[in-house]
User: Fold Ceramide-1-phosphate transfer protein from Vireo altiloquus.
Amino acid sequence: FSLREVLEAFQRCVTEQREVLLEPYLSGWRGLIRFLQSLGTVFSFISKDAVAKVSLLEERCGGGQGEQYVSMQSMVRHELEEGAEALRARSDSGCRTVLRLHRALRWLQLFLEGLRSGESRTSVVCTDAYNASLAAYHPWVIRKAATVAFCALPSRDAFLEIMNVGPREEAVAMLGEAIPYIDDVYSITEELFAQHKLLDLP
Assistant:
């Protein structure tokens, strides 16, 4: 895992026209998945799902209709051409897949912000971030298991070391630099999906 790679990927995501490019978005996600995997089995229920979603989107981007999947905006336009009902009926659509990653990105965004500020123990930061984001979409059994697993998380210093940036201060500074780019990508995606009533795709 390299926090710098994630930062650079999310930096490249947003165009001057405020479109979110899918290639750097997926590159950023690949970095975040490596971060989750480096934390062991605690996050496997999220990382395995994210791996599957990223792979599906990579197929879309590299497939015969790849030009329709250059950005979030072009993907939404393309997939809505068949109509909202047809889109809702598809379990493998790009929009549904991005929505799942989008929800997980919110959790990571909150978790990384909590790590940066260092005001609470990592287990508390992670649980609070989870409860404010992904928990609403998980059944009770997964919520319970996740909350128990978070109690075993390493210290903040161990997390900052995993960032592979250098001394703790540098890791905190780079988190401060990376989080606004992740926030920006999250906000644009949220607004786009809300505008087209896609935030509750089944």
